[in-house]
Amino acid sequence: MSETYAVILAGGSGTRFWPLSRNTKPKQLLNLFDGPTLLAQAIKRLDGIVAPENIFILTNALQEAGVREIATGIPAGNIVAEPAKRDTGPAVALGIGLVAKRDPEATMIVLPADQLIKDTEAFQSVMRDAVTVASGTSALVTIGIRPTWACPSYGYVERGDRSVLPQIKVSHPPYDVVRFREKPNPELAEQFLSSGDFTWNAGMFIWSVPTALAALNRHAPQLGEFVQELRRSKDPTATIAAQFPELTPISIDYALMEKASRVLNIEATFDWDDVGSWISIAKYLDTVDNNNQTNKPITSVDSENNIVFSNQDGCRIALLGVDDLIVVQTADGLLIANRHQADAIKKVVAKLPEELL
To answer: Which of 180, 185, 14, 13 is nearest to 87 (CA)?
Structure first.
């Protein structure tokens, strides 16, 4: 029986959490929650499902050292730095190729490294069922998050009927995917939420290598050929260095998931947060007077609804007569932003000098 593998996508630009995040240290490598980093948590959640030697981590050259520092239990050769930025389609194809070279019949899980999930038991239960479905069918399996509000910043998955799989017994039933929907405007997001037929697209995929490769060959032949070249290669490192930069940048959703003939969706029963901005982080900070949220003691007078984060000891932050700010302090940077523009911090980062990126 083929084993289960996992590919963790651990790249990213590190712009949304400046000045704490940098090009060499995006959010999955940061200590944001007084505990293990998001990458460390992602690895730990696979305990008992995927053996450490079957876990691959894909990152980039700038972040490779930081990933290796955290992922000490993963074999050094399983941590691979992509030689160029090519979006999730080529990255996932690279992961499929690495797994296929090891075990051409394997079932594999693809996971982002930067999501916060606390209920490990529920996560593992869902993943075990997803692996069972993926290994027993010719379907690509996705994990969907039940929407809690009409978020216009997420992709959505429209679900149809419950799939009929008489030979497969699982606790979390899969549903046929009707189609993937791109980030909607607020009005359309409200319609998605009220219909009850949509889940958020969490970017988690489970499939067998033969199923994934067949789908790539049909819908994204350039990526399928790259997988085949990597699988046949006697020098995978050289093949990646030569061929990966030549791949067309494209997301895995566009390249494969939106075109595949059979996709199933299993709804998550675990908590999930993509912690996409300082607004998301604020939910996990201490709340003090007037709804100010902070990770360190602060002094505030006539100030409310502020977010304060500092990684500096012995330096007191005081607020006077200010509302709705994000204040983030590091040794070499200070961000003061309107909290309603948290998603636009990358505009500031684009104007920073190189040494602060």
So the answer is: 13
